[in-house]
Specification:
This protein is mainly beta. Helices cover about 5% and strands about 50% of the residues. The strands form 3 sheets. Strands 2, 6, 7, 9, 12, 13 and 14 form a 7-stranded mixed sheet that branches. The chain has a 5-stranded mixed sheet with strand order 5-1-8-11-10. Strands 3-4 form a two-stranded antiparallel ribbon.
Length: about 200
């Protein structure tokens, strides 16, 4: 089995999403952030202004360039995998004052639709918790000095490419405030190509 690992970092601009709450978009729809049902996240790709989707305004995905086909730095990242490759997704937020965080919580293959005769192309998508992740803090007294060590628990999602083909998938994520309270649920839809 191939042990190649493709890491994807998802950066979500929380302020853009929160500031869109209640605004009318080109379709005439008013954006409402889903706040109570994680199974019905707000679909960011359904809301456009001047032809630019809300997901394109708020989500930035990056991976190593040799693993990307198109969409580097956008919500439409298309990555290239080989059968047997592992893919890791991690998320972080852009938030004024760092008052919000984001957590990916649900991966779904949306096209082609998964059926018993047509199973997932990326299987075993589950969170992996790391008990010791380095997270140094700047030394305020001397920023060029040795950073102050701290260690935190962190996680990523991992799945394995098991079939050749091109798929669209969605990632649902929750926005959490500084009191660890869920502010809302959203999703968007990038791509994977498996050779």
């Amino acid at each position: 089995m191939n042990d190649n690992i493709i890491d994807i970092m998802v950066t979500i601009d929380v302020d853009t999403i929160l500031n869109s709450q209640g605004k009318k978009f080109d379709s005439g729809q008013v954006f409402t952030l889903e706040k109570s049902n994680p199974k019905q996240p707000s679909h960011l790709y359904n809301f456009s202004t001047g032809g630019v989707r809300l997901s394109s305004q708020a989500i930035y995905m990056v991976a190593r360039r040799n693993n990307t086909q198109v969409g580097e730095g956008s919500d439409e990242l298309s990555i290239n995998l080989k059968e047997g490759d592992l893919v890791h997704w991690r998320s972080t937020s852009l938030s004024e004052g760092l008052y919000h965080a984001v957590l990916l919580y649900q991966y779904t293959q949306t096209s082609p639709v998964v059926t018993p005769q047509n199973p997932d192309y990326v299987q075993g998508v589950t969170p992996v918790v790391l008990n010791h992740t380095p997270m140094p803090i700047i030394n305020q007294n001397d920023p060029s000095a040795q950073p102050i060590a701290q260690s935190v628990k962190n996680f990523y999602w991992e799945g394995r490419a098991v079939r050749q083909g091109s798929i669209t998938y969605t990632w649902a994520f929750m926005i959490v405030d500084s009191d660890n309270q869920v502010v809302g649920y959203c999703d968007w839809d990038p791509y994977i190509n498996i050779d």
